[in-house]
Specification:
alpha/beta; Alpha-Beta Plaits; globular
Length: 279
């Protein structure tokens, strides 16, 4: 196994301590602030040391390569992008604290996602449709490393699916902007240029995300171990469980506890380094 260490600032002393703990056979720098420790072994103190030093770590099989992948499935809010779109929409009505509290509770898995979405969208009734464009133009930012991550996947012919409990207004724009292959999300009902406070059709909830992953996986003729899924909230857990490799990205504790890897401090491109080699 390789032990991959990465983060905003990797200190030599921490690297040497991790090499000792894992009984690694050498330290190799593979990118800026990214290091690979060869023939490494798990040790109970590694996780605590990395948390203290704000480092991401992952034990990677030497045979795990990018060429094995056929599909990457991502959540949108707080994963591909830095914001929760519905919270920022609510801010246009000065309701962000109320809506954000419901969002946070749903992401921690404390309340049912579909129920929480209905509650939050109902609070948006009467908002001008133009507010959605304002959120996209003024608030929405890609997660660090997102463009590099996606460009690498596309260069290697790996398909991408953006599946979100958020809204088609944003996923459609991101699909065109980032050249994503597939998107799935919820549609806000709009009448006379204003939000009605309702969602059209079946809600893309936790089960919906998992079903979309399976649908595209089967459509492409891929096996489970050819799929990687990335998310941050409790409503991503069923989707993450359907992938051969799952990644918790700046995620809630309930998600970090159930995934193959966790990226807590680095950008989205850190996922690329969880593969032993790319050739």
């Amino acid at each position: 196994m390789y032990l991959i260490i990465q983060g905003p600032n990797v200190e030599t002393a921490d690297l040497k301590q991790l090499a000792r703990l894992s009984v690694a056979n050498g330290i190799e720098q593979i990118a800026s602030n990214v290091f690979r420790l060869a023939q490494a072994n798990p040790h109970p103190e590694i996780e605590a040391l990395c948390a203290q030093a704000r480092l991401d770590f992952g034990f990677v099989p030497e045979t795990q390569t990018l060429n094995q992948l056929g599909l990457v499935v991502m959540d949108m809010d707080s994963t591909l992008i830095t914001i929760e779109c519905i919270d920022e929409i609510a801010d246009m009505l000065h309701l962000k604290p109320q809506v954000a509290a419901i969002t946070a509770s749903a992401m921690r898995g404390e309340i049912d996602f579909a129920q929480s979405l209905a509650q939050r969208v109902a609070l948006l009734a009467g908002l001008e449709q133009s507010a959605l464009q304002r959120v996209y133009d003024e608030r929405l930012e890609l997660s660090p490393g997102a463009e590099k991550f996606l460009a690498t996947l596309q260069m290697r012919g790996i398909k991408t699916l953006l599946v979100s409990g958020g809204f088609t207004f944003f996923t459609d724009k991101l699909k065109a902007r980032l050249k994503l292959d597939y998107t799935a999300s919820n549609t806000l009902e709009i009448a006379d240029g204003k939000l009605t406070g309702k969602v059209l059709g079946a809600i893309v909830d936790a089960q919906g995300k998992a079903e979309w992953l399976k649908h595209i996986r089967d459509q492409l003729g891929l096996k489970r171990d050819q799929v990687i899924a990335i998310g941050d909230g409790a409503n991503d857990l069923k989707m993450l469980a359907e992938a051969g490799i799952s990644v918790a990205y700046h995620a809630k504790p309930v998600v970090r506890a159930q995934t193959t890897y966790a990226i807590n401090y680095s950008g989205l491109d850190a996922v690329l380094h969880l593969f032993a080699r790319s050739e």
